[in-house]
Design a protein that fits this description.
- Helix content is 33%, strand content 25%.
- The chain is of the alpha/beta class.
- The protein has an eight-stranded mixed sheet with strand order 8-9-10-7-11-12-13-14, with helices on one face. Strands 3-2-1-4-5-6 form a six-stranded parallel sheet, sandwiched between helices.
- Strand 12 and strand 13 form a beta hairpin.
- The chain starts with 5 loop residues before the first strand and ends in an 8-residue tail after the last helix.
C-alpha cells in the first residue's frame, strides 16, 4: 500500500458503484486506480466518467491487479460470492455490497477464504458506519432507554418494478428482503444480536420473489422486533427502539438518519442532529474511511461491521426466507 493513499479497484459499474466511486474520488486519502465490468465498453465508460486509469473487461484482471489495495464489489447479490471470491483468492482486501451474499453458506465460504488469505473483508453496511447510528447504539448500550423491549423498522419502495427488474428477478437475489429488508434486520441485530425465534409472512410475485415481507423476531430476554420491507409500497423508513426507561425514535431514513429523538421518563425529549461536518446524510464516506483505516492498520475486519455479525444477519435472512418460501435458482 502507498504511504499516502489507499488504492481502490471497483468491480461493477452500476448505480451504487457510481455513488461509492464519486465519494472515493473526493477523499484525499483514496485513489481509484481500476474498474472492471463484464464488458470492456462499460468499464471504459465508467473509467472516463471518474478519471480512472485502468479499465478491465473481465473480473479476473481486476482481481489480479497487484497495484490495488482494496476491491469494492458492487455487483447484484447473486454475483457477490463469485466476484469477492476471485478477489480474495488473488490476495486482495475486499468490501462487498449488502446483502453480503445470497445465503449464509456463501457468506461462510467468503469469511473462511479471507481468513485463509489473511485479507480484510467487510460487508458494505454503511448504516453501521453512520455517526448518528453509532451515537444511538452507544446510548442504548449505556442504558439510556433501559432494557430494550421492542425494535421497529421498515423500508419500502413504491415501485412498480417489472418482472425483468433485478428487484424481482430471483436469479439475481431479487425481492424486498435481501435488497431492503437487510436494513431493518441489521438494525435489530445491531441492538439485540441474533434472534432466538423468528416468524415471518410474505406476499410473493408470480416468479417467486417476495414483494413484501413482515417478520417478528424474539429474544429469550423478552425483547421483540417487528420489521417490514416492500417493493410495492413506499414506507416512511422509520425506526424506534423502546426500552424499560424510554424510547428513541428515528422519524425517517433510519439507515442514514440526520436526526433522532430520545424520550426518557421524567425528562424533556432530547434531539440528536447530524453534525454538518459529517454530512450529507446519504454520504458513503464514513464506510470508505473505516475500510481504509482498518486496512492501513493491518486489520482483517472492522469492529464496526464485524464478520460474525454479518454471518448472523445472513443466518437470519436464511431463516426468514425459509419461513416465507423463497428459494433462489442457484440454491437448487
Amino acid at each position: 500500500m502507498t504511504e499516502q493513499k489507499v488504492r481502490w479497484g471497483v468491480l461493477a459499474t452500476g448505480g451504487i458503484a457510481a455513488a461509492f466511486t464519486a465519494e472515493l474520488v473526493d477523499l484525499p486519502d483514496a485513489e481509484v486506480v481500476a474498474v472492471a465490468s463484464r464488458t470492456e465498453a462499460s468499464a471504459k465508460a465508467f473509467a472516463e466518467r471518474f478519471g480512472i486509469e485502468r479499465a478491465y473487461g473481465d473480473w479476473d484482471a481486476l482481481a489480479n491487479d497487484a497495484d490495488i489495495d482494496v476491491v469494492y464489489v458492487a455487483t447484484p447479490h447473486a454475483a457477490h460470492r463469485t466476484a469477492a471470491g476471485l478477489c480474495l483468492e488473488a490476495g486482495r482486501n475486499v468490501l462487498v455490497e449488502k446483502a453480503f451474499t445470497l445465503n449464509s453458506r456463501e457468506a461462510t465460504e467468503l469469511v473462511a477464504l479471507a481468513a485463509d488469505r489473511g485479507s480484510f473483508l467487510m460487508e458494505a453496511m454503511w448504516m453501521y458506519c453512520n455517526p448518528l447510528v453509532r451515537r444511538l447504539k452507544a446510548l442504548v448500550d449505556d442504558g439510556a432507554v433501559g432494557e430494550v423491549r421492542t425494535v421497529q423498522a421498515d423500508f419500502g419502495l413504491a415501485g412498480p418494478f417489472p418482472p425483468s427488474h433485478r428487484l424481482r428477478d430471483p436469479a439475481q437475489g431479487g425481492g424486498a428482503l435481501l435488497d431492503l429488508g437487510v436494513y431493518p434486520v441489521s438494525f435489530a441485530h445491531l441492538l439485540l444480536g441474533e434472534p432466538d425465534d423468528i416468524t415471518a409472512s410474505a406476499v410473493l410475485s408470480p416468479e417467486g420473489a417476495d414483494l413484501q415481507t413482515a417478520a417478528l423476531f424474539s429474544w429469550d430476554s423478552g425483547a421483540l422486533a417487528a420489521l417490514h420491507c416492500s417493493i410495492v409500497g413506499g414506507t416512511g423508513t422509520s425506526a424506534s427502539v423502546t426500552g424499560s426507561l424510554g424510547r428513541i425514535d428515528i422519524p425517517d431514513g433510519f439507515f442514514h438518519p440526520d436526526r433522532f429523538v430520545l424520550h426518557r421518563d421524567g425528562r424533556d425529549p432530547e434531539e440528536f442532529v447530524l453534525d454538518p461536518a459529517d454530512g450529507p446524510r446519504n454520504t458513503l464516506r464514513h464506510e470508505a474511511s473505516e475500510v481504509m483505516r482498518a486496512v492501513r492498520a493491518g486489520e482483517t475486519e472492522s469492529p464496526w461491521v464485524p464478520l460474525e455479525g454479518t454471518l448472523a444477519v445472513m443466518r437470519t435472512l436464511d431463516a426468514v426466507r425459509e419461513r416465507i418460501g423463497v428459494r433462489y435458482p442457484q440454491e437448487g
